[in-house]
Specification:
mainly alpha; single chain; 77% helix
């Protein structure tokens, strides 16, 4: 039914926006900038809930064998880099600018594919890639609240997303679905982030965090973990019922909604050149979706 598809899309958009806003609140407003603990908590709860839902039969998950999991570990490492660097970047960069930089991950994917699989150049896709790249390059020069470390982490975030996208499409084992992939990502992330918590100083820093006993902080952390898991379920549900093109449209609309609402929720300095970078980048993303009529990068 058509209304069920629209309901899944609106549910996805709602969870997407609220999830990003919750993470931004914890990272920027409360200033809990300890990504090994923050992301470790999210992935731990995600892993527990996913395994529990699979055990109860509420989601369809096949048994993950060692032969299937081992080839996926490079992607899991990229996933950890993605969420770790993303947390660092989101804590210091406003949501509209964060999404503008995140769009340039398509440039990374495009370059990797061109190096590995040489093919015919599509003019419209090339224009869209150029628009997103130029916007990302010029944004640091236009951002009134430019933070060098935030943008440096954003570069790592973009590189990991771009490489992960290529790996997911072209190198994933055929017997791993989206939920199985994410389960491996969660378990690997929990292990790696737990090991890294002490050497990075996050564990000691968190013990001195001023909001550690705050009810708001505890509710925010629980909400962020639950919303991350719900976003996974909403994403899988939406992908299963829609084409690649329509899923991309819902993701695009969700990002635009988050960008439009974020100035009403969080304080941010806006300049005309920075807004132009945001708009041009998302025009480029729209052109990319238009050029990608088939399920490809």
């Amino acid at each position: 039914m058509q209304w069920k598809r629209h309901f899944s899309g609106f549910a996805f958009s709602f969870v997407f926006v609220v999830s990003y806003f919750t993470n931004k609140f914890i990272l920027s407003v409360l200033k809990f900038t300890y990504p090994t603990l923050f992301q470790g908590w999210q992935t731990f709860i995600g892993a527990v809930l996913l395994l529990l839902f699979g055990k109860l039969g509420w989601v369809e998950m096949s048994r993950i064998t060692r032969s299937a999991a081992l080839p996926w570990l490079p992607a899991s490492l990229l996933f950890v880099g993605n969420i770790y660097a993303g947390s660092r970047a989101l804590s210091q960069i406003d949501i509209p600018y964060f999404f503008t930089l995140q769009n340039s991950s398509h440039v990374v994917s495009h370059v990797i594919l061109k190096l590995v699989h040489r093919g015919k150049r599509q003019r419209l896709k090339f224009i869209s890639i150029c628009l997103m790249l130029l916007s990302a390059i010029n944004l640091p020069l236009c951002d009134p609240q430019f933070d060098f470390r935030g943008y440096l982490w954003a570069i790592g975030h973009v590189l990991c997303i771009g490489a992960y996208r290529v790996f997911q499409v072209h190198h994933r084992p055929s017997n791993l679905g989206d939920l199985e992939q994410q389960c491996i990502n969660y378990l690997f992330s929990v292990l790696l982030l737990a090991v890294a918590a002490h050497p990075t100083g996050d564990l000691m820093g968190a013990l001195e965090f001023p909001f550690l006993q705050s009810y708001t902080f505890h509710c925010g952390c629980c909400a962020s973990a639950l919303l991350g898991f719900l976003l996974l379920l909403a994403t899988v549900k939406l992908k299963s019922g829609l084409s690649y093109e329509h899923f991309g449209i819902w993701t695009f609309l969700s990002k635009v909604t988050a960008m439009c609402l974020s100035p009403l929720v969080f304080s941010m300095d806006v300049s005309v050149p920075a807004v132009m970078c945001v708009m041009i980048s998302h025009v480029g993303e729209a052109l990319l979706m238009y050029s990608d009529r088939e399920p490809q990068l």
